Structure prediction request, 490 residues.
Amino acid sequence: MRRLIRRIKRLSITALVIIIGIMGIKTIAFTSRQVNIASVEALPVEDGVADRLAGAIQFPTLSTSTTVDTAALLGFGAFLQQQFPMVDSLLERRVINRLSYVYKWPGLNPKLPSILLMAHQDVVPVEESAGSEWAFPPFSGEIAEGFIWGRGALDDKSSLLAIIEAVERLLKEGYAPQRTIYLAFGHDDEVGGLNGAQQIAAYFKREGIQFEYVLDEGTMVLEKPLAGLNQPLAMIGIAEKGYVTLSVSVQLEEAGHSSMPPSQTAIGILSQALARLQDNPFPAHINGATDLFFDYVGPEMTPLFKVLFANRWLTGGLIKQQLSSDPAANAIIRTTSAPTIISGGIKENVLPATATARVNFRILPGDNIESVLAYVRKVIQDQRVSVEVWKKDEAMNPSSVSGVNTFGFEAIQRTTQEIFPEAIVAPALMIGATDSRHYTEVAANIYRFMPVQLTHNDLSRYHGINECISLDNYKRMIRFYRQLILNSCK
Ligand SMILES: [Zn+2]
Prediction:
């Protein structure tokens, strides 16, 4: 017996030594993916750029669930023509579906595939009750305290104006690109992009254009991004999650009377179904874009975290557990579900025969609409509850994952490291939806990145109160797009 115990002890020590050995080797092999390049000199950008962004914000180009503001959009389109005379006269401008625009800047070498820079013109509304909480009225475009304030200052008029400022500037410098550069500005991103981006993509398809890469709005440079990483983190979205809303409903033949209720009412059955869904989250996966994210971030982390992320074969469970406890981190490792609307009943003493909920899902690449539907039905496991896709035309499977060993990713990575020399660059999964999802047939490589450096607190300004961008950040955005065009034409 004693001999057996000794043997087991010896064996477990050997196993431990082997595991530590493998961990050591994996950690040593976990080397940096950052590109070693010199930062470029910060090109002076005149303060006048702030006035033009402020002017853009003053057009309330609102998208609501039912309409877009045609007059504001037309005004904004004319404003762009008037404010950027060189772009207007030297680039070919095409109007798509009356309110969206495509600009073409022909390249000197027609054999090189084109690139596309995108942004959207529309903005989300400001809740009336929140209006008074803004430091400056949301459509004033106030320039104060070193910031430009208003709806669209981040999402997404800053990108749109910075792209066009960069092109105007290059035109003034007499620059002629080697490859053709397209700009596309949709007008209904915030309501799905069906009349804007989708129609623009259809136009490109008809023209037989296949882009080398597409860059749309997306993830950004974040200060103090996560524990174990001391530098700002530039996240380049290489994939985005899918989107579907399910209608979960109960329809009883007979509701009964509230003075003699059955053991379960329609509302009770529905509540139980929703509770089951909440108690059984989708399985977590570290795959695709998120796996690559850790490949890029891990080597730059403090030693303990580096060992942890270099050995995901062993620590994967622990990492998933940690990530699951934070809503933002949880969203990059699993399909999430969120009940957003619930209805049932008309009077306090009448049992309703029906009760309905809408549950919104953000689908992780690897899952799809069908697998979400199957999972939800399996978890609820109740014949009385029906589960159907709600608003089929708004449902969208996750995007494919764009490559990191591509011309496009490398050009964006290089440019980011030149313009944000302090930052670590990593590919990432984008949780929200962008217009770029309509472009899969005209580009294999689609990236989602907003070249702006923010803190965690700033993130709530997207679609929120006191949306603003600092003048320094905005000038850097212009430098970024200019440099990206130069790097894409080398
Ligand atoms: Zn946006």
